[in-house]
Write a structure and sequence with these properties.
Elements: H1 2-15, H2 38-45, H3 66-76, H4 89-92, H5 137-146, H6 155-164, H7 166-176, H8 184-199, H9 208-217, H10 221-224, H11 229-239, E1 258-259, E2 266-268, E3 271-272, H12 276-285, H13 304-308, E4 319-320, H14 342-351, H15 372-383
Antiparallel strand pairs: 1-4, 2-3
Helix pairs in contact: 2-9, 3-7, 3-8, 5-8, 6-7, 6-8, 11-15, 14-15
The structure holds heme C (HEC) (2 copies).
Residues 242-244, 246-248, 259, 261, 263, 319, 321-322, 324, 327, 330, 333-335, 342, 345-346, 349, 364-365, 378, 382 line the site of one heme C (HEC).
């Protein structure tokens, strides 16, 4: 302990000026604090503060409405939204499994080609699905309801359910101010908008990283030094030599865009998952995109990204950059669940073959050649983005 303290004092003395704030040591530090440079502190500060303010989606008139959140939560667990009556959103997005299912590939009526992503922090968008085929959370929520491989309910079935089930009809009226009407497609979209309002409330708690980040920004060295040293070293790599923050940027640890990190795109012999390239085509062809009549945004602002996004050949094999909060509780990883653990993910980045990277232009990923200790440090950092989640209270009744 004494020796560590001494090491820290010497480190501070050596870097005085370059360090955060070389304040005199008022209290002994729990363990050494790395000599963070001002530039590093600036980079780390960009990953917070957390939590972000709640989102309001202008394309969804019931976004952030408590009555819609409640209706959405009921619909989320309702197996009647599926053709077989057996599957709900929660079958794949399980609250006790990090809002995913722990499977490498989602299991619907058949096995799908992609993994079920977690729904944590999903409200912040702007693109949804591994390939960005959705430009709003509500549009993305329609897809599984209609897709025969997932829930396969059909528009008429969802509309009839909202009209005919007295409790759901009452919940609908509370959320939308009207009894369910005759327009089936509109009712399907409204169900999805309530589902979206609910999912936007799924925000991860503060983590050891957030406490460290705030302490560092505020110059509170005592609090900062409680952050494990391995996580500090991993963080230094993350924002430094390993450049993970080129894509895993900002408070959610994603820039919300797409990238190619060399995960194979073959689904089965002769068949590929083209990722973002196919997603953009599906987005353009969807009647539910933000340029269509179902958006509640009257300014045209919400559809701006969708209007201007270009489909480029380099989008082939790109997948959405996942946020990294709470991922240590998830796994398997990547769009196809091909990596089992965080150790495997970090090893992938360390050893990825440049030939695997099929993007045009300048690849942002290169084999990092990390030592075993560095790999362990990165994993320790990733684990510090994880917090204990209190158990969810029972779903409150819709119309008592
Ligand atoms: C059979 C399993 C399954 C069911 C049931 C299911 N999902 Fe999903 N969900 C997935 C998979 C797989 C993806 C990734 C899809 C893709 O990228 O093509 C996904 C993606 C999503 C996303 C995008 C998340 C992101 O990070 O972009 C949202 C939102 C979502 N689902 C909500 C729902 C809702 C709401 C329901 C119920 C109406 C539902 N899901 C039902 C498997 C499922
Ligand atoms: C070029 C942008 C880019 C860079 C740089 C990058 N990532 Fe990623 N990361 C992605 C993309 C895109 C995926 C999803 C790839 C897929 O599913 O095919 C991903 C997936 C992940 C996952 C899995 C998350 C999940 O839910 O499946 C982890 C963990 C991760 N990256 C950590 C890191 C670390 C650590 C570094 C630095 C060593 C890093 N990333 C560098 C873009 C990037």
């Amino acid at each position: 302990m004494i020796r560590r303290l001494l090491a820290w004092v010497l480190a501070v003395a050596a870097t005085a000026g370059a360090g955060v704030s070389a304040q005199p040591l008022a209290q002994p530090l729990a363990q050494p604090l790395l000599d963070w440079t001002e530039e590093e502190v600036t980079l780390i500060a960009r990953h917070g503060p957390w939590p972000l303010p709640p989102v309001r989606d202008p394309s969804n008139r019931v976004s952030a409405s408590p009555a819609a959140v409640r209706l959405g939560e009921h619909l989320f667990y309702d197996t009647r939204l599926s053709g077989t009556g057996q599957t709900s959103c929660a079958t794949c997005h399980r609250p006790d499994r990090n809002w995913s299912d722990g499977l490498a590939r989602a299991q619907g009526t058949v096995e799908l080609d992609r993994r079920t992503p977690s729904l944590w922090n999903v409200g912040y968008g702007p693109w949804f699905g591994w390939d960005g085929a959705g430009d709003s959370l509500w549009a993305q929520s329609i897809r599984p309801i209609l897709d025969p491989r997932e829930m396969g309910a059909g528009t008429g079935r969802v509309a009839a359910l909202l009209r005919e089930d007295a409790t759901l009809a009452c919940g609908y009226e509370k959320a939308f101010g009207d009894r369910p009407g005759r327009d089936d497609e509109r009712l399907l979209v409204d169900a999805a908008k309530a589902l979206a309002a609910f999912q936007a409330t799924l925000v991860t708690p503060r983590t050891p990283f957030d406490v460290f980040r705030d302490a560092l920004v505020n110059g509170d060295r005592v609090a900062a030094a409680r952050y494990p040293l391995a996580a500090q070293r991993g963080l230094r790599l993350f924002v430094g030599a390993a450049s993970c923050n080129a894509c895993h940027f900002g408070p959610r640890f994603t820039n919300g865009e797409f990238g190619d990190v060399g995960i194979p795109f073959f689904v089965r012999p002769g068949e590929v998952d083209s990722g973002r390239l196919g997603g953009l085509a599906r987005l353009a062809g969807s009647p539910f995109n933000l340029l269509g009549s179902h958006s509640d945004d009257t300014t045209g602002e919400a559809g701006r990204r969708t209007r201007h996004v270009q489909r480029l050949h380099s989008n082939f094999g790109e997948f959405r950059v996942p946020g990294l909060r709470q991922t240590a509780r998830g796994g398997p990883y990547m769009h196809n669940g091909s990596l089992a653990s965080l150790d495997d993910v970090v090893r992938h980045y360390s050893e990825v073959s440049p030939d695997r990277l099929h993007s045009d232009g300048v690849p942002l990923v290169r084999p990092l050649g990390l030592s075993a200790e560095e790999q362990g440090d990165l994993v320790a950092f990733l684990r510090s983005l994880d917090a204990e989640v209190p158990p969810r209270p029972p779903v409150p009744p819709l119309c008592p």
